[in-house]
Design brief:
Layout (H helix, E strand, L loop, with lengths): L8 H11 L8 E3 L5 E3 L4 H23 L2 E4 L9 E4 L7 E10 L14 E4 L18 E13 L8 E2 L11 E10 H4 E5 L6 E4 L5 H6 L4 H4 L1 H9 L14 H10 L5 H14 L5
Parallel strand pairs: 5-7
Antiparallel strand pairs: 1-2, 2-8, 3-4, 4-5, 6-11, 7-9, 10-11
Amino acid sequence: MGYRMEFDFIKVFHDKIMNEKISWEISGLVTPDGKIISLGNDSKLIGRIFELISYNVLQRIADENGFIFKAAEQQTVYPDFTLMKSISDTQKIAIDIKTTYKTYKKNGELSSYGFTLGSYGSFLRNETKNIMFPYSQYGKHYVIGFIYERNENLNEGQIYTIEQIKQLPLPYKNVEVFVQEKYKISGEKPGSGNTENIGSYKTCNMDYLINGEGPFSTLGISVFEQYWAGYPKYRAVTQNYTSLDEYFTYCEKKGQDVDELRRKYMYWRKIHESEKK
């Protein structure tokens, strides 16, 4: 698939949030009579907050760069947002918002974190299933990822006045944001055990996500799409492969030459495996 070389979405997004000094912090809900209700740290609520703020940022990016901006009308439809020049545009840009929070081990070390990156059982196999436009009409697929720390010491649902606004506790803190192409941060395992969602490459190194250093970053988007389009569904009886090693063996049995791909993967694993130890 081709794409617009002249539009660097990653740079444009980062420039926008830096130049406009976008804040990702929301501390409460305002009622019509001016009262403020404090928030809790529910991950779905916080994820929705990031989506709402991103909506406004993306709308301005679209307006400034001559794009039509369209949000998904249902939560189950991919992607969250689409940028396009027209409805018939075959180089549409898909943008998904993903969030997760940091957890720590008993010894205080940061645990690896990851995201679910959308279904592998729908539009990768049937290009019109659960997707805003046919999959083949998208030239790029981006993830805007948010990683934050939860504030555990909260009394949610408390009422404050406008005069007390500075007293409101933040439900989250230390928000880190990255933008990257989806295939570059994808891992080789599902994001959860009982759903058909692509899992991101789990890491505690933010630079790997910023730079897009997952295993498919060296293998390419075509391998990413083929791998996940053929990954066994949750209740599948036949499982041709559940890892990249098994995928290469499966391809060889079908007569494909995967020596170069296996070499690239082994080199990637040698570089990144050290953080797992």
